[in-house]
């Protein structure tokens, strides 16, 4: 897991949490364990438990769910969950290419989190609230390549899946690799750098 910390009072949208359940739905026991970790109650008498996509869940519980996935399914499970995020989470509108898609991850990241009940990104003013870290994107001039630097509390294999899921929305054959020469949060670094090629 990432060594990067976050500020208290942060929650994550239920649409993002639903990505976890969608990614691991074939593992019924794990889904049940994750719903326990996320403290998801049953709705109504005899009803099954389900993530409320309109609700907000504590980030601490969400990160605990990732630790559970990592311990039971490993890095591939984390990547699969990450790849589902672009399908479910809120992203800025009018994204038309891979560069815009990868550059939008930081805004989307903040749109899907709240700090003390307040959205961490205001689309009307462009104001972004700090407290959970960032994703920064830079294109490599003259190449079908870009770099995404992730400095946040999420696991690096999750971020690899997230970046791949976003890149492949625009370039289905895009490849994402972790650049070990730039450090790794799992090994105590402040960030991870991913190279995207297509």
Task: Compile the SSE list and pairings.
Layout: E1 10-13, H1 14-23, H2 28-37, E2 56-58, H3 59-88, H4 98-103, H5 105-111, E3 113-115, E4 118-119, E5 134-139, E6 145-151, H6 156-170, E7 175-178, E8 192-197
Antiparallel strand pairs: 1-2, 1-3, 3-4, 5-6, 6-8, 7-8
Helix pairs in contact: 1-3, 2-3, 3-6
Q: How would you portray this structure in words?
A:
The protein has 198 residues and is α+β, with helices and mostly antiparallel strands. It has a single domain, classed as H-NOX domain (Alpha-Beta Complex), CATH 3.90.1520.10. Helix content is 39%, strand content 18%. It has helices at 14-23, 28-37, 59-88, 98-103, 105-111, 156-170, and strands at 10-13, 56-58, 113-115, 118-119, 134-139, 145-151, 175-178, 192-197. The protein has a 4-stranded antiparallel β-sheet with strand order 2-1-3-4. Strands 5-6-8-7 form a 4-stranded antiparallel β-sheet. β3 (113-115) and β4 form a beta hairpin. The longest helix is centred in the middle third of the chain and has 30 residues, at 59-88. The radius of gyration is 16 Å and the shape is globular. The two termini are 28 Å apart. The model has no long low-confidence stretch (mean pLDDT 90).
């Amino acid at each position: 897991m990432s060594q990067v910390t976050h500020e208290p009072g942060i929650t994550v949208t239920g649409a993002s949490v639903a990505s976890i359940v969608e990614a691991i739905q074939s593992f019924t026991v794990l889904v049940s364990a994750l719903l326990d970790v996320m403290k998801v109650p049953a709705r109504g008498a005899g009803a099954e438990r389900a993530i409320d996509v309109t609700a907000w869940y504590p980030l601490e519980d969400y990160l605990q769910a990732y630790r559970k996935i990592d311990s039971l399914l490993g890095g591939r499970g984390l990547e699969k969950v990450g790849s589902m995020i672009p399908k479910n989470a809120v992203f800025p509108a009018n994204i038309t290419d891979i560069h815009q898609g990868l550059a939008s991850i930081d805004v989307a990241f903040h749109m899907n989190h709240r700090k003390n009940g307040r959205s961490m990104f205001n689309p009307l003013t462009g104001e972004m609230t700090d407290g959970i870290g960032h994703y920064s994107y830079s294109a490599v001039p003259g190449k079908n390549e870009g770099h995404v630097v992730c400095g946040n509390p999420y696991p690096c294999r999750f971020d690899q899946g997230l970046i791949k899921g976003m890149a492949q929305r625009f370039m289905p054959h895009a490849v994402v690799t972790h650049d070990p020469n730039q450090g790794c949060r799992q090994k105590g670094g402040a960030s991870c750098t991913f190279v995207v090629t297509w």
